[in-house]
């Protein structure tokens, strides 16, 4: 007997383990959803905040066995959601449209757009996105730097962002990444002991920045954004920012790897990352869909 319903608190353990298992295979992988069951559970409980997970995730059970999970992480300020899944065991894929209907019924009225980030090898979800009239926005390449290669990093000099350079950093970020999931102002508000912006200046002139997030509890970290002023490109500043950020991230003894995401067509950036020591991990497809609002 098949049951599709909204998740409840008692499901979290099973759901996080289920997502971690399926997300470990590229053929069922969704970007940014994680592969560690404890990290996934913590994120669902603590970080999905605008719409709590008990109002944004649905599960499918067949004969009391979990066979599917689908949900969304809402950003009400941006009127958008990031889709988690669908994660469905192969033999039960036919439940996907019923799950999709159940999930979209939970969407708040103010949501205007949906985003999906399936792995390029996740053929079923890529095809689902097309069937649901999503538009492919871009291909994204995920790169990784392992702690074991940290000894290869050169010594560089970078400095932490200070208030006198807030405006420079915000202007460069918003120009380089218009419409990104964090604006320059939002990044500055996020800064804490695990989230830092580092910069390089030359005779008081702002040259570039890098924003990183460390997650020592889960042994990983991400380079979220970095950019160099147009007049300073080609001078090695990008490599210095990356190297300095990596060195800081690896001061956390529990961090084993650092990841970053770059548009697959940005060959010059990928070349720079690989020159510093990053290695290719996998590729994602970025899909978006604008919702039609009834009058």
UniProtKB/TrEMBL annotation:
InterPro entries: Acyl_CoA_acyltransferase, GNAT_dom. The keyword Cell inner membrane does not apply. GO terms for molecular function: acyltransferase activity. Pfam families: Acetyltransf_1. Its EC number is 2.3.1.-. It is an enzyme of class 2 (transferase). Residues 156-292 form the N-acetyltransferase domain. Keywords: Acyltransferase, Transferase. PANTHER family: SPERMIDINE N(1)-ACETYLTRANSFERASE. This is GNAT family N-acetyltransferase. It comes from Ornithinibacillus salinisoli.
């Amino acid at each position: 007997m098949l049951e599709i319903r909204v998740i409840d608190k008692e499901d979290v353990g099973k759901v996080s383990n289920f997502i971690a298992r399926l997300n470990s295979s590229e053929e069922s992988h969704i970007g940014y959803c994680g592969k560690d069951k404890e990290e996934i559970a913590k994120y669902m409980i603590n970080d999905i905040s605008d719409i709590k997970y008990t109002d944004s995730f649905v599960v499918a059970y067949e004969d009391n066995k979990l066979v599917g999970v689908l949900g969304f992480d809402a950003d009400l300020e941006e009127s958008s959601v990031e889709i988690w899944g669908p994660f469905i065991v192969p033999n039960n894929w036919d439940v996907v449209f019923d799950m999709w209907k159940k999930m979209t019924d939970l969407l708040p009225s103010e949501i205007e757009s949906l985003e999906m980030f399936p792995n390029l090898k996740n053929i079923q979800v890529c095809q689902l996105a097309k069937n649901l009239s999503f538009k492919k926005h871009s291909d994204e390449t995920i790169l990784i730097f392992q702690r074991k290669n940290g000894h290869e990093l050169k010594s560089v000099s970078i400095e932490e962002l200070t208030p006198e350079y807030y405006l420079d950093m915000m202007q460069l970020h918003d120009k380089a990444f218009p419409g990104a999931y964090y604006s320059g102002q939002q990044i500055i508000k996020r800064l804490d002991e695990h989230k830092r912006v580092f910069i390089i200046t030359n005779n008081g002139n702002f040259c570039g920045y890098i924003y990183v997030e460390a997650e020592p509890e889960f042994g990983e970290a991400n380079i979220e954004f970095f950019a160099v002023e147009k007049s300073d490109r080609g001078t090695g500043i990008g490599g210095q920012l990356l190297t300095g950020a990596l060195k800081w991230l690896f001061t956390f003894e529990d961090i084993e790897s650092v990841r970053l995401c770059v548009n697959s067509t940005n060959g010059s950036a990928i070349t720079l990352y690989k020159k510093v020591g990053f290695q290719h991990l996998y590729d994602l497809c970025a899909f978006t869909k604008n919702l039609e609002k009834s009058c």
